[in-house]
Amino acid sequence: MKDIPKEDPEEVERKKKRQERFGVQSEKEKKVERAQRFGLQNSELDKIKKSERKKRFGGITGNTEEESKKIEERAARFGLYNENQEHQKQKERKERFGVVDPETEKEKKMARQDRFGAK
């Protein structure tokens, strides 16, 4: 077995003083700090930025009934897109023009070709 060299007590004391002066950082913290300083991409940095943004603007939440009512009222007031209105328009169009059946469309095309001559 090899003997493990023991550190000099003065050396240990100097390291402790340096840590007190400059602080102790893990390798991960050093990488994040370097990425921030030089504008590099880092997954840890991205997580930090996202958490800060979430604190500033609030997280994404599901629509409650109250929020959905507000959204509908706003859409009605400003004439914005509304899913219910869109479905209603589609339903009215189907009633007005009928549902398109591919077989009947094919028959209509054949009859038109016969009448006007196929080229």
UniProtKB/TrEMBL annotation:
Keywords: Phosphoprotein. Residues 1-119 are annotated as: Disordered. The keyword Phosphoprotein applies. One of its GO terms (biological process) is poly(A)+ mRNA export from nucleus. Residues 10-39 form the THO1-MOS11 C-terminal domain. GO terms for cellular component: nucleus. Residues 26-36, 66-76, 84-119 have a biased composition (Basic and acidic residues). It comes from the Eukaryota. InterPro entries: SAP_domain_ribonucleoprotein (IPR052240), THO1_MOS11_C (IPR040746). PANTHER family: SAP DOMAIN-CONTAINING RIBONUCLEOPROTEIN. This is THO1-MOS11 C-terminal domain-containing protein.
